[in-house]
Sequence to fold (777 residues):
Amino acid sequence: MTMTFTEPEITKELIKIHGITEAEYARICDILGREPNYTELGIFSVMWSEHCSYKNSKPILKLFPKDGANLVVKAGEENAGVVDIGDGFAIAFKIESHNHPSAVEPFQGAATGVGGIIRDIFTMGARPVVLMNSLRFGSLDKDQNKNYLRGVVGGISHYGNCIGIPTVGGEIYFDDFYEGNPLVNAFCLGILKKEDLVRAAATGVGNPVYYVGAATGRDGLGGAAFASRELTDESHEDRPAVQVGDPFMEKLLLEACLELAKSDAIVGMQDMGAAGLTCSTSETAAKGNLGVEIDLAQVPRRETGMIPYETMLSESQERMLVIAKKGKERVVEEIFEKWDLHAVKIGELKSGNLMQVFDHGKLVAQIPPKALTDEAPVYVREECEPEYLKETRAFDLSQIADAPLPSLRGVPYGTTKQSRTEIASAALGRLPRNDDEGSWNQTLLCLLDSPTIASKAWIYEQYDHMVRTDTVFLPGHDAALVRVKGMKKGIAISTDVNGLYCYLDPFEGGKIAVAEAARNVACVGAKPIAVTNCLNFGNPMKPEVFWQFHRAADGMSEACRKLGTPVTGGNVSFYNENPRGAIYPTPTIGMVGILEDIGKRVPSFFKKEGDFIYLIGTTYDELGGSQYLLTVHGLRKGMPPRLNLDFELKLQNFLQACASDRLLHSAHDLSEGGLAVALAECLFGCAGKPMGAEVNLPQSGLRIDSLLFSESQSRVLVSIAREEENSFEKKVHSSAIPFQQIGVVTRDHLKIGSWIELSSRELEQTYRQAIPRRMGE
Fold:
């Protein structure tokens, strides 16, 4: 029985609900030569949303360098960036957000974020081989944030583990600025032979259009529009806008699509992600400068009574649109029959410039595809510098004492100095040392107990990071490292950004995000080659937010050009605000590098007692924006450290050269927590069996807290065999890079000058228990 549906009248209120302005509605009427119907209004709503059209960010995204000798496709041309890695192979990779869905339904929001980024990779003809992520949450002292963390990590592990793709690393921060608006950025990388690359353009009039994969339901309805507005106290009511994923179905779809890509039966393939069937149909037609005709009556559905509006806008998961070659229909159908998946012809490509959507032969939408894609509105938003920067820039280090504070270990993150001091003993439950009145020992333990710095083993131990047997470095190293199967070549990946730096200085923070991600890759011995990014910001309609966005993009662009790492694509996520305000500006970087010989890889942890320890780079009195200033003094103030990109490039080239010559036993970037925290982290390579280090720092005229906890950039700790001392120092001298031999690797304690002396076991216990203790485990 065919159900009848009376479309609602197009009123001002309905237009507003769809997020379309009066000017945009007038433009829609001009395009169509009439008023849109209900289905067409929904189509324009999702396609002109920020999530799909980038209408507020396009002018800024043009700033990024997008050209490189090894780029196979440019940023924005396809579902993911593709880079030639030699020997006939290429890698496809991308990072993308699923923030709003994860705030409403953490498990499914995160799980479908992973599923979506995987589809972006295999739709290119690449086999996904590695997953990463970048996560942000509020303080773990609040139950809501613990629930977010459990749900998001559970969703990521569920989808990745079930589909059989290793999650090999990532990064995570905890800060009150992410309260109620967690960030979930998922990264995926795949490998393909260059000749197997599949593009998303529709070519060939008369070629059939196939719907393949899972059936369509009402889940995820309007998800793209949902992601293009702020979260509010009522956002939990948007739960239907969150998709529901099935990793086992996606595994079948992955294998079927990769088999299809090698079959010579298709001319294009597109994931049904944001805006579902609407986006995939209109984008492929627009790229091919063709028209397309589909009939929704042919679309497999798992719910009854779905109207055209719902079918076109549904974001049900595990679905793809395939443009087959005419005459090859049976090849497509047989492949998907083999994998027990739907493969239904729903239409064909047409000459002209119209997307025509029918339902049981009745025309329900008729729109030029380019009006939905290339010709969507673009805005240049007002911007102005935020007022809060006047106060944060006025901070001077002389305002805080260069002395340790009393017993801060285990104290809730982000509280005031006074309250932390008062509740320290209760929070930890014990203070075994004799220096409870306050020492640099306690300050270091406090930092190691901060969830942002502490071990993330509670998180990554829930991920299968060994499936496919190509993982070279387990999670915890400066960068993930996986081998290219059957070759000596390895791929190094790092995700990185310090949101507090970007809050205090978006330009410098953007530069540092790129540089640190590249430095992490260089620390394992690889050469950084390209970037993908996920730009997480507040409401772009607020001038202060758009200023942050523009300045951060400027900084990132400058760093990418200097370091030779073009931007291959990514994602913009605006409207990351809760009822209390915007998140930190968080432009996440996914950096990819190539290591020609994985036998020359460099781990991040000390390996051998007796090795010499060197500090490469220069330390300055730079505590602004540091974890020390935030965690110990409760201050989000000061200017973040300055970054010299010329020196950064020189340092990274030096690290790669040392790795190539096998001079390094370990290399570890100095970042949050500075030198003292980095030294402690270098001890923890083998759980339960930490190494030790004895370090003496030359007098430098710096404050003690700067010497220990400054986050000055372009610094790396390396360890070398004693017999390599002359060779190493000759190489570092010839590179004109400042360095100091500061100590030696020992067995079971950390001693830094006369300021810090702690057992390695106590350091490790504090570091490893910080998150489990807060999670009640």
Remarks:
- The chain has a mean pLDDT of 92.
- Residues 398 and 703 are 10 Å apart (CA to CA).
- The two ends are 55 Å apart (CA to CA).
- The domain at 1-66+199-376 is CATH 3.90.650.10 (Phosphoribosyl-aminoimidazole Synthetase; Chain A, domain 2).
